[in-house]
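Hi R.,

Here's the chain you asked about this morning:
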Amino acid sequence: MVPGDNEWNECFGYDINSNSGDLRDLWRQLFALDPPYDSFTTPFPSGGDLPTIYRKTTPDDNGDVNPELVYFKTNDIAIIGLNFVSGEAYINSTTINEDWVESSLTSSGCTLKSIVLFAQRLPNQSVYDKVDEYITSCGGTSVPVLTITGDIHPSNYCMTQRASDRFDLTIEAFRSGPIHVTIVRDPTGVKGDYFHAQDTQTRPGSYKCPDFED
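And here is the predicted structure, written out as C-alpha cells:
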C-alpha cells in the first residue's frame, strides 16, 4: 500500500504542507505499521524466502518519519514503495523519496537482478538519478527497472517502454485484476531486458499508455 491523492492531500483536515497530522498518522498506522502490512507471513514462491519489510521509521535530519515508504528484497529483486501524489504535498518538495531509494539500494548490495518502484504517480527524475548512481557504483551493468503507478487511469493496465531497460506499468485498480509481471534478463545483451505484464483475469489491456501515445 502506498498513498494516493484521495487519502493523502484531498481529505478534510489535512495540512498538505505538513508531513504529519492525526489523519495521516492514522493512515500510516493502518496501512503501514499494523498487520498485515508490517510483515510477510507466507513465503514467496520464487525462492521460497520470507522477506523482511523495512520502513522509514527513523527520523531524518528534518525529523521526518515516513513509514509509508517501504522496501524489501526477494530473489535479488529490490521492491521500493514511494510517496508521490499528483497534487500538492509536503513530500514533493523534499528529498525524502530520493534518500529512501538511495539507502534501500545501498543496503541491497550489488547483486540485484532488477528494481521495482511503485507510487501513485511517476517519481521525479531525481529518483532515477539515484538508481543510475547505484548502477554506476556497482560497475555500470544495466539493471532493468519497472515503475508501477496508478494515476492516469487506463481502461485496465498499460505499459510504456522508456529505454531498453526502463518500463512504466500503470494499473487501473478499479477495473484491473491482479497483475502478473515477469521480469526477463536477456543473457546475450543483444535484444535487451524486458518485462511482461498479464492480467490474471484476462480483461483487455493495452500496451501503450494513453498519455504517451504519439
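One quick note: The two ends are 32 Å apart (CA to CA).

Cheers,
M.
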